[in-house]
Specification:
Keywords: Amino-acid biosynthesis, Aminotransferase, Branched-chain amino acid biosynthesis, Pyridoxal phosphate, Transferase
CATH class of the largest domain: Alpha Beta
CATH superfamily of the largest domain: D-amino Acid Aminotransferase, subunit A, domain 2
Modified residues (N6-(pyridoxal phosphate)lysine): 203
Distance between the termini: 32 Å
Structural class: alpha+beta
CATH topology of the largest domain: D-amino Acid Aminotransferase, Chain A, domain 2
Organism: Paraburkholderia panacisoli
Number of helices: 8
Order of helices and strands: EHEEHEEEHHEEEHEEEEHEHEEEHE
Number of domains: 2
Strand content: 25-35%
Largest sheet: 9 strands, mixed
Family: Belongs to the class-IV pyridoxal-phosphate-dependent aminotransferase family.
Radius of gyration: 21 Å
GO molecular function, one term: L-isoleucine-2-oxoglutarate transaminase activity
Bound molecules: pyridoxal-5'-phosphate, 2-OXO-4-methylpentanoic acid
Shape: globular
Helix content: 25-40%
Amino acid sequence: MNTETTVQFVISPSTTPTPHDQITASIANPVFGRVFTDHMATVRWTNTLGWHDAKIEARRPFQIDPACAVLHYAQEIFEGMKAYRGEDGSISLFRPFENARRFRASAARMSMAELPEALFVGAVDALVKVDQDWVPGGDGSLYLRPFMFASESFLGVRSSNEYVFCVIASPVGPYFKAGKSAVTVWVSDQYTRAAPGGTGAAKCGGNYAASLIAQTEAAAKGCDQVVFLDAAEHKWIEELGGMNVFFVMDDGSLRTPPLSGTILPGITRASIIDLARQEGITVSEEPYAFETWQADAISGRVKEAFACGTAAVVTAIGEVRHAAGEFKIGHGGEGPVTQRIRTTLTGIQRGKIADPFGWSHHVA
Ligand code: PLP
Ligand code: COI
């Protein structure tokens, strides 16, 4: 059985590639996750062959049996990462081995086959190379979506004996409406995202399915994202539907909820912690109660708050709404600390400033 990373990608370029002028038009102003590149990467796993059949081919629909395991018991995990075009035209990824490691951890939690990290990054690299014309310049990027699902046709409840790993790519601009300097969030008092012992730290589709009702409620309240509190006490701030959260305190320190097992260990979160500590900024990873956040925002002890993640990058939180009222953070727009963190992080990602940690991974 092949458990190694010696799998080679067979590349079969699309016979109907998108013409250049059409690619240029598609990547000029893309809506998040609507436009896709010409190709996809796939690797299959079976309990008898291990990882095999690695391909880059024209993007096409999957044909799956109605009894396909993922349709019934939701064994599915994914990742989110971006390829950036530097000012010199070169293309790079940001800490792709961290995504590969998290993907393995998600697979382990969901009792799925664990893809070797080099194969994960190899698939992403190969796809980005083939579809490199789709990587926008400027503030855009090519969003990459590696994912894996249980592909065995079988209705018994047990781990699948077959999986399909796939990577697709989509040129993207801002996740939130362009030009929005800060978002408004809704604190869910009714729904939780993850409980101790559950799957909160895994990037599995089921977590997002469970969050959608709260996200719909947030949208109905005029909010951009939902904030989840912990499942046990309904007191402690955990994270947003698709992002981690930070608070900027009046003494200049940063605060963010700890990795308790119920939140996603964000790579953006980890990078911001490293960057801040390197600058001598104190970062505390301590539980923070929603009620304290409200009191601190009103008293001025909390100066700024921001959401962070691959899709959201670093986005200021300007206003918070909840069942009993609402409050503003600072002046309701992006504060100076949030702006500086955003500029530093995106500068490293786009090769505009020095990369002290060696986070950029050159592709083409
Ligand atoms: N939390 C959730 C629930 C997410 O979906 C994401 C996005 O992937 C994050 C946090 C941030 O993770 P990362 O910074 O690795 O993109
Ligand atoms: C990402 O940031 O990659 C995510 O998966 C979150 C989602 C809001 C797109």
